[in-house]
UniProtKB/TrEMBL annotation:
Basic and acidic residues bias spans: 402-415
InterPro entries for this protein: Homeodomain-like_sf, Integrase_cat-core, ISNCY_transpos, RNaseH-like_sf, RNaseH_sf
PROSITE patterns: INTEGRASE
Protein name: ISNCY family transposase
Segments for region (Disordered): 402-425
Superkingdom of the source species: Bacteria
NCBIfam families attached to this UniProt entry: transpos_ISNCY_2
Native organism: Vibrio cortegadensis
Span of domain Integrase catalytic: 124-305
């Protein structure tokens, strides 16, 4: 009997033994007095079992026949014994025209020992993985988002590089976001300090691993993966955070120690923190780093020159030149210099290199191409329009852009282009050193004679 039926039995029994009135019992059970009288008669004639549901224990009128069940189970045994219930049901319907509900098939397969429910399976055992043998053999990388400055500045991200063999912190860098450019800058700092490791071990963040099925066919589908391929460094993506536990545990330690150390040092900005981090790394490694199993250092010498590294650590994309030797990138039209040699590049594919400081380079093979730009989002230069004798076309273009501006209220760059946070920071540093380096077009030659 169910709890409801047991409660009903106790109330009806009290009425039969004159400890409760029928009206009160009807109110308690939300029944009529006539129904209470019927239940009293059943209890007196047939006992407590008469108060249970009459269909209990009997097969359902909507059940599948025994012959149909045998046919399905024999088909599953013969063709789909190692299939899951969902997959087996799909094939039964597609290939054998045997229609059955998923839950019914699952229960049949469990009863027939063709499927073990997840609740009855043994839990997977994750045994600890031994450390790698040498320094630089495997470097675990991760980004830790935290309120590192305890409200003195906005929340930011700390990029952490930890050696698997020794638990040494190889590099730390604060950044506003966890973007590809920020990882490129941190990786270049790593190469300058230590050289090339054998492999980087990361999570499945979009910077390291693409979910696009077409991109996954390539071994290095992302910009960061392409960069490591050019450097000859392997990139390994972990399926779980537990797999890269050393950097995860380092993040917890840093969120405790580093935050308090910066509070004691009165460090309040990302720039101040990045300048001070090398001292913290040396102190941290002296306290917590372990000795490797073998003393050999697996880091390799960086043989690329500075120009090659600048090209490698850039956001690279390709465009096809038009008949007029132009292409569009990030809503800017680029006009390749019309020379005899460049005239042969019509309909050819050129490579665009977008550097972290915001500058652009265009290459065809190993040759850099000179170009001019026409920014669609910039204001129209009326003098230039008159000189080019294309007043009508440019005015129509200006009118179209004004309509778009009124509609959207704001003008934005292309969303497919790289994030500009790292570029803004680099440009700000250039402007602090010399405004002419950041905006060369503002330079005016002095006319004074001395």
């Amino acid at each position: 009997m169910s709890e409801k039926e047991i409660r009903r039995f106790k109330v009806i029994q009290d009425v039969c033994e004159h400890r409760l009135r029928r009206a009160d019992a009807a109110e308690i059970l939300s029944l009529s007095e006539r129904q209470v009288q019927r239940l009293m008669n059943k209890l007196r004639e047939h006992g407590a079992s008469s108060l249970t549901h009459a269909s209990r224990g009997k097969p359902s009128n909507r059940r599948y026949s025994d012959e149909y069940r045998k046919e399905i189970l024999s088909t599953v045994h013969k063709h789909y014994s190692d299939f899951s219930p969902t997959f087996a049901r799909e094939k039964l319907i597609e290939n054998h025209n045997l229609v059955i509900s998923l839950e019914t098939l699952r229960q049949w397969m469990i009863t027939d020992n063709l499927w073990i429910p997840h609740s009855q399976r043994k839990p997977r055992v994750y045994q600890p993985r031994y450390r790698r043998d040498c320094l630089g053999e495997l470097i675990q990388i991760d980004g830790s988002h935290h309120d590192w400055f305890e409200g003195r500045s906005e929340k930011c991200c700390l990029l952490v590089f930890v050696d698997d063999a020794t638990s040494r912190i190889m590099n730390l860098r604060f950044s506003e976001t966890e973007s590809a450019f920020d990882y490129m800058v941190a990786t270049r700092e790593y190469l300058n300090d230590h050289g090339k490791p054998m492999a980087f071990y990361s999570d499945r963040h979009a910077i390291f691993h693409s979910s696009n099925k077409q991109a996954v066919e390539s071994k290095y589908p992302t910009q960061y993966g392409r960069m490591l391929k050019d450097l000859g460094i392997e990139l390994i993506c972990a399926n779980s955070s537990q797999a890269k536990g050393r950097v995860e545990r380092a993040n917890l330690t840093l969120q405790d120690r580093l935050v308090k150390e910066m509070r004691l040092q009165n460090i309040n900005t990302i720039e101040e923190a990045n300048n001070w981090l090398p001292y913290f790394i040396d102190d941290f490694n002296q306290r917590f780093a372990k000795a490797a199993n073998y003393p050999k250092d697996m880091h390799r010498i960086v043989r690329e020159n500075t120009s090659d590294l600048d090209d490698i650590f850039s956001w690279q994309d390709t465009r096809k030149l038009s008949k007029s030797l132009t292409f569009q990138y990030d809503k800017v039209v680029y006009l390749i210099e019309n020379t005899e040699e460049n005239a042969k590049l019509v309909n050819e594919v050129v490579k665009i290199l977008d550097y972290p400081d915001g500058s652009i380079s265009v290459q065809y093979g190993h040759r850099n191409l000179n170009f001019k730009t026409f920014d669609k989002l910039a204001k129209v230069d009326q003098g230039q329009v008159v000189d080019n004798k294309r007043l009508g076309q440019v005015l129509r273009f200006a009118q179209q852009k004004q309509e778009e501006f009124e509609k959207n209220q704001t003008r934005e760059r292309s969303k497919s282009s790289p994030k500009r946070t790292a570029q803004k920071r680099a440009i700000a540093q250039l402007r602090a050193l010399n405004p002419v380096l950041a905006e060369p077009e503002t330079f005016q030659e002095s006319t004074s004679k001395k």
